[in-house]
Specification:
Elements: H1 2-21, H2 35-46, H3 67-84, H4 88-103, H5 134-142
Helix pairs in contact: 3-4
Length: about 150
């Protein structure tokens, strides 16, 4: 039993070493990798945070060098500072307002052909799929099931 485990471990280490040298998939030559498996491999390579940045050498960025983590830590430190100055609530509210502003995209940032969720902002007031229109609502309200049920 332990010999089989050691043999598989040696195969794994050999495959891992050869995979680091070449960008080929660790799958056998006759077998194509499924898209889900490739996505799982990328997620596993990204680490538990999922947001590892790819570097030219293939190594992931250290945890302390991730921009989002640094921003969150800076925000938390500033929140503690403002809370000490008894200005924690205004800092928190202004932070939320800023995040709402920064999270919205302007019409210039929209991709070509992308429609807005609000039909009044689309060319010709075109509605997106799944939108409930007044006409559809009227048709559904006037529908009456068969009598006696």
């Amino acid at each position: 039993m332990s010999a089989a485990v050691e043999r598989r471990l040696a195969q794994f280490r050999a495959a891992r070493g050869s995979a680091a040298d070449s960008p080929r998939s660790p799958e056998p030559p006759g077998k194509a990798a499924a898209p889900e498996a490739a996505e799982e491999q990328r997620a596993a390579a990204a680490g538990p945070g999922g947001g590892a940045e790819a570097r030219p050498g293939g190594a992931a960025a250290p945890v302390w060098a991730r921009p989002l983590l640094l921003k969150v830590l800076l925000w938390a430190v500033l929140l503690a500072l403002f809370a000490e100055l008894e200005l924690g609530l205004p800092y928190f509210v202004l932070s939320l307002l800023y995040w709402m502003y920064a999270g919205t995209r302007g019409p210039a940032e929209r991709r070509r052909g992308e429609l807005s969720a609000y039909s009044v902002f689309n060319p010709g007031c075109a509605a997106i799929a799944g939108t409930l229109t007044a006409e559809q609502l009227e048709r559904e309200l006037h529908y009456r099931p068969a009598a006696g049920r």
